[in-house]
Write a structure and sequence with these properties.
alpha/beta, 7 helices, about 30% helix, Ald_DH_N, Aldehyde_DH_dom, Aldehyde dehydrogenase domain-containing protein, Ald_DH_C, oxidoreductase activity, acting on the aldehyde or oxo group of donors, NAD or NADP as acceptor
């Protein structure tokens, strides 16, 4: 219909709603498809066979890498808005936090303090730090928490009766695959430690999200090294 109306090629980039993307992948006039979803789902894998460009804008989030020597207070303070702001639905919302091992305990202590001080309420209330998402999201968070607890993952919630905010802590978060594919859009933050620069890079490059990474360090040379290795 767009072609019949004379809309220039490449103008339409976003198709909202729940649709079957197969028709767009095989259509000769479509060059780019924007996806607000998990890019690693099987139905998107065959798009490369048709030479289509996929722009991933899903609310699956970004990673955060924290090195020793940075301002831990600022890093922890930023997590509140970066992870839970706008109900955690923005594409650049933080989902994974990787913290250098020698400052892991200090970071967790400060992060818990910051998260516990957040004021939670409805989006139209005054002085609210983070707003409560809808019941569908809350139910998913509760299921993630139960799965994490069953697998021995440390779960931090300032108020156990309120599913938001939720932080999963510990090195066994990834091996146990607590947050499965269907729950990528859920505003739950995972925090794990790393030892070396290469380990931090590998953790960031192997997340499902992959949309972006924020690097926290006082060393410009270290940041430049990270930038050169991130995919």
């Amino acid at each position: 219909m767009a072609g019949q109306l004379g809309v220039p090629e490449g103008t339409i980039r976003l198709i909202p709603g729940k649709i079957n993307p197969d028709n767009f992948f095989v259509h000769s006039s479509v060059s780019t498809v924007s996806i607000f979803d998990d890019l690693h789902k099987e139905r998107y894998l065959f798009a490369n066979h048709f030479g289509k460009k996929l722009l991933h804008f899903g609310a699956s989030g970004a990673s955060m890498v924290v090195f020793d020597g940075c301002d831990l207070d600022s890093a922890c303070h930023s997590v509140a808005d970066a992870a839970f702001g706008t109900k955690g639905t923005l594409p650049w919302s933080v989902r994974n936090i990787f913290v250098q091992e020698n400052i892991f305990d200090s970071f967790i202590h400060k992060l818990k303090h910051n998260v516990a001080s957040l004021k939670i309420g409805k989006s139209n209330e005054r002085n609210v730090d983070i707003s409560i998402p809808d019941n569908t999201v809350l139910d998913k968070v509760k299921r993630v928490v139960v799965e994490a607890q069953n697998q021995g993952v440390e779960v931090f919630q300032p108020d156990p009766d309120n599913a938001i905010p939720t932080v999963l802590i510990g090195a066994n978060v990834f091996p146990n695959n607590v947050i499965k594919e269907d729950f990528i859009n859920v505003p739950v933050v995972t925090v794990v430690s790393f030892r070396t620069v290469n380990e931090a890079v590998n953790l960031s490059n192997n997340t499902r999200q992959g949309l972006g990474v924020s690097v926290w360090s006082e060393s410009t040379s270290l940041i430049n090294e990270i930038i050169g290795k991130l995919k």
